[in-house]
Amino acid sequence: MDLPRGYFKLDRARLIQKELKMNALSRTRFFPRSLSQWFCQLLLVTMMGMCGAGFANAQSAQMEAEADMPSPLTSSPLAPLPLNSPRATFGSFQTLSQNAVDTILEAIDVASNNNAFFDTAEVKALKAKGMSELVAATQTLDLSSVAPESRRSMGLNAVLLLKEILERIDVPDISQAPLSGEVAPNKDQPSWSLPGTEIRMVGLPDANGTLRYKFSSDTVERLPEFYARVRDLPQKTGSEIDFYRTFTLGPGLSAPIELYSYLTRLPPAFLRDYGGQAAWQWMAFGVLTVLLLGTSATLLVRVFGRSTQGSHVPRAIVLLVVALLLGIYGWLNDEIINTTGELQAAIEVTVLVLQGATLAALVVLVFYGLARMVHTLPGDRREGLDASLLRLAIRVVGIILAAFILATVATRLGMPLYGVVASLGVGGLALALAVRPTLENFIGGLILYADRPVAVGEMCKFGGVQGTVEAIGLRSTKIRAVDRTLITVQNSDFAEMSITNFSRRDGNQLQFEFDVWPDADGSQVIKTINEVAAKLREDHRIQQDSVRVLVREMPEDALKLEIQAQSLIADWTDFLDMRQKLLLALIDMLKTRNVLRNDREAAPS
């Protein structure tokens, strides 16, 4: 179907009527020029006085109607749209929709009178004003059955459809629409139908419980059907322009209005209506879709098709580019190609779902990349429990953010998240029972993190096994035994064991025993004991108050010189080196004192 004749011409019928009225008023004078006119005026005043009661009642009814139906165009931009009765809603819709159409047609008229290809500031302001009035008119519609993501586009489409329908049928005077107290009660909800039509308004409670009358959701859904019935009827206003077709079969308002002139030069076949869209719109939509799919598929295959273990940066950049391409694709279809109706709703839903999935994957990829950076920590820290928990925390945050993005997408699609969350709770309980051993090990890892009995690189002993800790994960701990075998212990078991940590000693025990002659000179033995104790106390590597040197009796007439001290050296290797040097020095000292049995050292313990 071709675009209507007069595509670029402003419907000036109403403007001409207003101009004629203003001219008539300008020719009327308050004071008549003759006595006969004075007499007629006096007679008119007398008749008005006689009918004062009737005029007063009529004026009272009119004031009541005006009080019930305030003007939708108030001085405050934050004032709510009057929807407190069918009369108020009907008046709000007619005023806003007509003003929007007049404003947009004026923008087209202004643009057609200048030679600029791109819109001037005046044209842009008129288009923005007209669009804001159309958006405000959507508040008179019950769009609760439409997905939140598509409510704006579907609402604008419905406003234009309803306006064209009302201009082609016999619409009662606005004063015949009922007030809020005149609506017939209904067992479900109060409603009012436009006489002789299936167009219905219903009272819907707002957040404060106040009824706000809107065109019902079933009426909004059936508007394309109603329009198909009356589209060939002449408009009651005398206008020749079908603004709905003018708006939907042309480019979007974000495109320069001058583009309309180029479209009118296309062959008629390109301007015909196919399923609510012009042929040129279908062609542009197809080309744009092929470009999007081809570009996105090429980028994804090139980057994700390579089996690389390197940086995630290229993949993250590609996902971000795809998300941006989807946004541009949706904007071009809506604002430039001007797809409308069910096609635009499908595009918006598809773009939202794909963008949400892409951004969720991007977030997970970025946070998993951050978790992998923990492996670059120096030394043994990257294998410790702290590093494992840090990696887990980063990944969990990424998953939570991705879930939040998907939940936002589901909300924009109108999906009830309460049922989903409840089902996840039941499923989570079943999953927890199924993975109980894994959870036990995870909790055991948390216990190890809280108590910190061992760390990577420390030597410990547990359950008869001694070795060095090599890695502590969220599920298990790996220990290299003294025979160089690798032992893996579940965290749930490891946390319950008695663990001896040799690496955390603040020192080591020194203990020597030497055989002494039973008949040795007592004074010489005491002198030797004092000398040995003094030598040990002089060493800064030994705790002074821990030195013990004494002789005790053993069976079979043997005497033992027992030497004990606490070394301040915690490192085992350094301690062994110190112990060896100290032992050799003590042996030389005791030999010179001639108190050792057979002048030989006993094997030190």
Structural notes for this entry:
There is one protein chain. The protein has 605 residues and is of the alpha+beta class. 53% of the residues lie in helices and 13% in strands. It has 18 helices and 13 strands. The strands form 4 sheets. A 5-stranded antiparallel sheet has the order 9-8-7-6-10. Strands 1-2-3 form a 3-stranded antiparallel sheet. Helix 6 packs across helix 7 (217-230), helix 6 packs antiparallel against helix 12 and helix 10 (279-304) runs antiparallel to helix 11. The protein is elongated and about 140 Å long. 26% of the residues are buried.
Task: Break the fold down into its secondary structure elements and pairings.
Blueprint: H1 13-27, H2 35-50, H3 52-68, H4 86-112, H5 121-137, H6 151-166, E1 191-193, E2 200-205, E3 211-215, H7 217-230, H8 243-248, H9 258-264, E4 273-274, E5 277-278, H10 279-304, H11 313-337, H12 341-372, H13 385-412, H14 417-434, H15 436-451, E6 459-462, E7 465-472, E8 476-481, E9 486-490, H16 491-494, E10 499-501, E11 508-516, H17 522-538, E12 542-554, E13 558-567, H18 572-593
Antiparallel strand pairs: 1-2, 2-3, 4-5, 6-7, 6-10, 7-8, 8-9, 11-13, 12-13
